[in-house]
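thought: user wants a sequence for this fold. calling inverse folding tool.
action: design(structure=
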């Protein structure tokens, strides 16, 4: 995964810890499945440029199964926020 910017450093560190590496295209597909409001082409560009909005960045951390936020957020709170967002879109 070639990503620039500050978020690129975070993604690179997460990628190194993953047992099943994920391509940027796969990550974009999963973001779309979670309701990201961009096209796949735009999401891929945002990921590669390290130019993500905070909600999408947090979704990426969850998709990549990062534990980097464990000290700051309870996983159940992240799930509750995601469920609330999905419910509001229905």
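)
observation: tool returned 90 residues.
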């Amino acid at each position: 995964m070639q990503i620039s910017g500050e978020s690129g450093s975070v993604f690179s560190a997460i990628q190194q810890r993953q047992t099943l590496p994920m391509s940027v295209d796969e990550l974009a597909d999963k973001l779309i499945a979670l309701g990201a409001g961009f096209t796949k082409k735009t999401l891929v560009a945002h990921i590669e440029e390290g130019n993500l909005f905070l909600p999408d960045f947090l979704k990426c951390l969850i998709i990549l199964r990062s534990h980097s936020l464990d000290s700051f957020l309870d996983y159940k709170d992240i799930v509750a926020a995601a469920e609330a967002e999905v419910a509001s879109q229905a």
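thought: summarizing for user.
answer: Here is the designed sequence. Residues 75-89 form the longest helix (15 residues).
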